[in-house]
Amino acid sequence: MKNFSKTLITLFVLHSGFVTAQSKHFITGGTIEFEKTQNMFAILKKKVTPTHMDYQTTYENYQKSEQQFITYKSTLIFNATSSLFTPEPGKSLPWYYWAPIAEQLNTIYSDFGNQNTTVQKVFYERTYIIKDSLRKIKWKLTDETRKIAGYNCRRANGLILDSVYVVAFYAEDIHVPGGPESFNGLPGMILGVVLPHENINWYATKVTLDGVDEKKLVPPKKGTPATYKQYYQVLWDTQSRYGDVGRYYIMGFYF
After folding, report:
1. H or E segment to which residue 153 belongs
2. Cα separation of 3 and 185, whole Å?
3. What is the C-alpha separation between 255 and 252, in angstroms, rounded?
């Protein structure tokens, strides 16, 4: 009788595992709402450099009159092979408090099947359309986890643009290798991104699985055609003359 009971328990456990495996499915389409938050005190302090000490007064005035954290909203729609990241207009700051890294200047279409991207970038009064390969990020997976927008996410540490350290949290249940902005390349959708040294983060606030209007999931078209290399040259030609602050702006526009 005891052996019979053990057999029943074993069969039950095996059956339960089979049912769980059958019921688990990967998500390959939907809409994700993101919030981008930036620490403006830290961002504007970086504009105070040995060659631009005049920004010290501007930085101090901002601390007295403006809020430390600013949040912008954006939307990512996706299917199994592509995604479209669209930013929403946010708080408009006076030019003397402005920094491109703290803005949302990019509309990004990612084609994961063909490993290429179409990015609409706003550079002051100009708009560029960059068609190039998906941005490469060197990822290292970890065992750390956290829950974001109702999904269990695993942490990965990465390096982007050779020197920018990034922390990402991706949901394996959303089986698409995308994320906000140009973040990609993990075995699941990225729902959280932190740039610790740039004082910026993106977190998903809502995931909706009600299908995608394929007519909207198309690359942006308006802008002057360019590659990332050509766009960087434009940035260098126009911004490098401003020294440390110019290079900080180049990184913000290029990102």
Report:
1. strand 151-160
2. 50
3. 5
C-alpha closest to that of 145 among 168, 163, 111, 121: 168
CA distance 106 to 119: 7
d(CA 120, CA 107): 5
Q: How far apart are the first and last CA of the chain?
A: 68
Other CB atoms within 10 Å distance of the CB of residue 63: 13
- In whole angstroms, what is the distance from residue 36 CA to residue 88 CA? 11
Distance between CA atoms of residues 190 and 202, nearest Å: 10
Tens-digit pLDDT profile for residues 123-180: 999 999 999 999 999 999 999 999 999 999 999 999 998 889 999 999 999 999 999 9
- Condensed to tens digits (0 to 9), the pLDDT of residues 14-52 reads 343 433 333 346 788 899 999 999 999 999 999 888 778
Distance CA 73, CA 2 (A): 61
- Token pair 């020294």: residue: 243
Q: What is the CA radius of gyration of the chain?
A: 22
User: What structural domains does the chain harbor?
Assistant: 30-254 (2.50.20)
**What's the whole-model pTM score?**
0.86
